[in-house]
Amino acid sequence: MAKPLKPDRKRHSGRSLGKQLGDWLVYCVVSALLRVVEWLGPDRASNLGGAVARSIGPHLGVSNIARANLRLVFPRKSDAEREAILRGVWDNLGRTACEYPHLDRLYDFEIEWYDPRRVEVSGIRNFQEMLWDGKPAIIFNAHLGNWELPAVSAARHGLDTTILFRPPSNAFVAQYVMDVRAGTMGRLLSRSRGAIMHIAASIERGDHLGLLVDQRYSTGLSVPFFGVPTPTNTTVARVARQYDCPVYGSRCIRLPDNRFRLEVVGPIDLPRDDDGRVDIAAATLAINKVIEGWIREHPEQWLWLHNRWAFDKRKLQKGKAA
Q1: Quick check: is 286 in a domain?
Q2: Of 25, 19, 184, 13, nearest to 5 (Cα)?
Q3: If we measure between CA atoms, which residue out of 272, 278, 267 comes closest to residue 139?
Q4: Is 117 a member of any domain?
Q5: CA–CA separation, 267 and 117 (whole Å)
Q6: DSSP result, 242-311
Q7: CA–CA distance from 254 to each of 96, 158, 188, 289 (Å)?
Q8: pLDDT by residue (tens digit) across 95-144?
Q9: Residue 2 in domain
Q10: Among 7, 133, 196, 289, which residue's beta carbon has the most beta carbons within 10 A?
Q11: How many domains does the chain have?
Q12: Is residue 181 part of a domain?
């Protein structure tokens, strides 16, 4: 059972009384929902979350951001095809949210005996290479399928990992997220100005740095994603350049009957400059290309609701054209 939600006092400090009250109200609703989700168990919770989300989600204003993204990336698809993808996006998001309290029960793969029940793994030799070579490495991920499972997998099999993540702004919910992740994943590192120092320390002690790199990164380098330049997180390329460590990619694919396939690819041959060092811009583009391929295979499982190409949210949420 997940622990009751408790406030992270540091994250609460400096917030107005009104915002704290809003956080508290959200906490009350989320707490009640979590109790129901836990009682249902992983399968019924996932099915319920998917059904509710795909029924309600497409009618919300935020879905217009996804529609704009889909028109940009898939201009030749019909409106009906894009709407089908959008319903899949909401289905996957609803399922992922309701699976969160059950992460420790979802992952049932064992390297020693290959008898997959809920989870199967592709690229197990790549994972074993990281596990046994004694070297640090970087593992990038994307918001596909249940994107929390690759980190659960790493921790379950003893891969020393530091997970870079962005906590929710709601202090109560942030504490719950920390509690769940601390029990199922490796070391957790919140994104902050001082995070780069902790990243360096983790690489130097031989850890594997895991991070999601598919969302818009406002201070990042403008690099094409599906052919359209947009600010992109360059942490993978920068750390690989500085420490000359291997880079792997991991993703989760949602399968029928509440099953999953985890894939590990790499080490990826990143482009290098004339001095033999990793070329940051070219390497970031290469990583984007890998993620693009993943998304094209299963577009309904990616988080298109994120404003990756910075459309005007106010116009989109009012239903105006991008």
Answers
A1: yes
A2: 25
A3: 267
A4: yes
A5: 28
A6: HH---EEEEEEEEETTTEEEEEEE------B-TTSSB-HHHHHHHHHHHHHHHHHHSGGGB-TTS-TT--
A7: 10, 24, 25, 21
A8: 998 898 888 888 777 766 656 678 888 877 888 888 787 788 899 999 99
A9: no
A10: 7
A11: 1
A12: yes
44 contact partners, CB below 8 Å, separation of at least 6: none
Residue with tokens 């399922």: 95
Whether 284 shows a pLDDT value over 80: the answer reads yes
- Residue 197 β-bridge partners: none
- Domain range for 86 is 9-317
| Exposure class string for 135-158: b at 16+ Cβ within 10 A, else e | ebbbbbbbbbbbbbbbbbbbbbbe
pTM value > 0.90: no
Q: Give the ranges where 41-167 is alpha helix by DSSP (H).
A: 42-56, 63-73, 79-99, 103-106, 124-132, 149-156
Tens digit of each residue's pLDDT (9 = 90 or more) over 45-61: 999 999 999 999 999 88
The residues, any chain, with a CB within 8 Å of residue 233's CB and separated by 6 or more, are 211, 213, 215, 217, 220, 284
Residue 72 binned pLDDT confidence (cut-offs 50, 70, 90)? very high
